[in-house]
Fold this protein.
Amino acid sequence: MDARPVAGGEKALIKWVEKMAFGEDLRDNTAARPVPERGLRADNWFVAQLKPNGLALAQRNLLRQRFETFVPERMENRRSAMVRRPLFPGYVFIRFDPAAHGWQAINSTRGVTRLLLNDPRRPSPLPSQFMGGLIARCDDKGLVLPPEKFSAGDRIRVIAGPFADLVTTVDSLDQDDRLRVLIDLMGQKVRTSIPQQNVEKVA
């Protein structure tokens, strides 16, 4: 994963998050699902890069400094077991008021490498509409919710399992929450089924 997604400014950062998360414009999908009653506001969110394996340490120390954090996660299939994994490994969303004093301490917080800012002198938060869309895609524990519905003809990307990163089209739906798809295997079209939680829609 790119360690410096801010190259090109705020718009580049937003597009990077959208691409890595869902392959779609979150700002256009905010109204598709109500924001969960989880107490998270959508304003004044920033992104920080973490040190290797520094998530738990960073969250613990940021909490001590009374900074609010948000780490969206998704379920992934690892060695035949579904486990929770950060949606953006190596990064954490942090909420603070850039007009208040004290936010500079984030850069010296244990577990944090640096805040990703366009202008360190005048920090500009991620747009509230964008963050509202991201928060709305997660449950009250930060787990990315599965798509509400798939239909035949939907373009999907496989995010876990032996066909991870494959982009294909839904052929039909099974009755046990699996999607029937056609894949190209050694030059031959093969029909197989994939669990819905292992795929995401592609815009």
The chain is about 15% helix and 30% strand. Helices lie at 10-21, 55-64, 128-136. The CA atoms of residues 12 and 51 lie 22 Å apart. Residues 10-21 form the longest helix (12 residues).
